[in-house]
Specification:
alpha+beta; about 30% helix; globular
Length: about 100
C-alpha cells in the first residue's frame, strides 16, 4: 500500500487535513451565479467554506477573490485562518453572521 493511500485531503484555505467524517464542501472559485458553473472547484472544510461566503459577496468572489491565494490574503479570512489553524481538523462551529448578499 502506498503511503498516500489513506491520507486525508488538505483544505486549501486553512491547510489542515479534511478527515472523511468532517463536514466538507466544494467551493466554486467563480460563483455559479456569476458564470462559474462547470468551472474549477476546491474541496474545503465546511466551516472554511461558510466563512468565505460570510465574508464576501458573490460579486466580490467573482471579481477579486477567485483564487485561493486571493482568498487567503483577504483580511477577515486571514484572521479566520490564523484562528482555525489552532483547532483540530475535526473542529466545527457556527460562523457568526449570515451569507453575504449575492
Amino acid at each position: 500500500m502506498s503511503p498516500s493511500a489513506d491520507v486525508d485531503p488538505t483544505c486549501p484555505l486553512c491547510q489542515r487535513p479534511i478527515p472523511t467524517e468532517v463536514a466538507q464542501s466544494l467551493h466554486h472559485l467563480i460563483p455559479k451565479l456569476k458564470g462559474g458553473k462547470g468551472g474549477p472547484t476546491v474541496l474545503l472544510h465546511n466551516i472554511c467554506h461558510k466563512e468565505i461566503h460570510a465574508a464576501l459577496s458573490e460579486a466580490e468572489l467573482a471579481r477579486s477573490f477567485n483564487t485561493m491565494e486571493a482568498l487567503r490574503q483577504h483580511p477577515r479570512l486571514a484572521k479566520f485562518i490564523a484562528w482555525v489553524q489552532k483547532r483540530p481538523p475535526s473542529f466545527q462551529s457556527r460562523v457568526p453572521g449570515g451569507r453575504r448578499k449575492r
